[in-house]
């Protein structure tokens, strides 16, 4: 709401929001308070007209975790794949990556759950780069895979996904999560179960915390056993992209929790023991 007489403005669509608002400037003559009787409701914004390339990933809710609450994998995978798309597209077009903007959105509708990865020109009514790259979509997806698979870092680094302009999302970048989403979208393949030895390795990274909390862990057999106060259960580390499995007598914890959010992993175990 904006007062056309004095310029006072407040968020809302009811003139009452201006009731106790003073003039937004000092007035040398005339100290009378504005009554805000001449008000208008306006939308502050602008149109950004440009071409956009959108890659739509349909997620199978029976196989993939689509719940946004405490879902570290989904946001990391989408953000990382969006960054990879921009880097590879700029290389294919032989332009500065700053000329392209990228992002993602998560949406639900009666048809299911989707992740949209989008790319558009940085300038309104730009050069049509997004449309141009769409003609070689298979080459673009292949280049993204090469970028994500061709690094030797544990998550993301300056050789693959990180750069100065995306420092605000460095904590979300994960080339492995992006690869999992890409493989699902292109080939329909869900990440395979984690090998037993890798699960033991992951559990060892939190074993000292668990031992201090009174838990006993056994990794000598094929199955990982965890116990406390006489309660004994199997412990399984599963890929974070999976919909959380359920099985009597078994505690399931995602690998992402164990790797980058250990307090959440411990909390999951405490709630299920």
Overview in brief:
The chain has 273 residues and is of the alpha+beta class.
Total number of distinct structural domains:
3
Structural class: alpha+beta
Helix count from the secondary structure assignment = 7
Report the count of strand segments: 9
* Mean pLDDT over all positions: 90
Shape: extended
Beta fraction: 15-25%
User: Describe the biggest sheet?
Assistant: 4 strands, mixed
Q: Any low-confidence stretches, pLDDT <50, length ≥5? A: none
Helix content class: 25-40%
Return the string of H and E elements: EEEHEEHHHHEEEEHH
Strand order of the largest sheet: 6-7-8-9
Radius of gyration: 26 Å
Tell me the span between the first and last alpha carbons: 55 Å
Sum up the structure in keywords.
273 residues, alpha+beta, four-stranded mixed beta sheet, three-stranded antiparallel beta sheet, 7 helices, 9 strands
Structure description:
Helices cover 32% and strands 19% of the residues. The chain has 273 residues and is α+β, with helices and mostly antiparallel strands. The protein folds into three domains: 1-45, no CATH class; 52-187, no CATH class; 196-272, no CATH class. Helix 3 (137-149) runs antiparallel to helix 4. The longest helix has 22 residues, at 72-93.
Explain the layout of strands and helices:
Elements lengths: L1 E2 L35 E2 L11 E8 L12 H22 L6 E10 L2 E10 L7 H6 L2 H13 L25 H13 L8 H17 L3 E3 L5 E5 L2 E8 L11 E5 H6 L1 H11 L1
Parallel strand pairs: 8-9
Antiparallel strand pairs: 1-2, 3-5, 4-5, 6-7, 7-8
Helix pairs in contact: 1-3, 1-4, 3-4
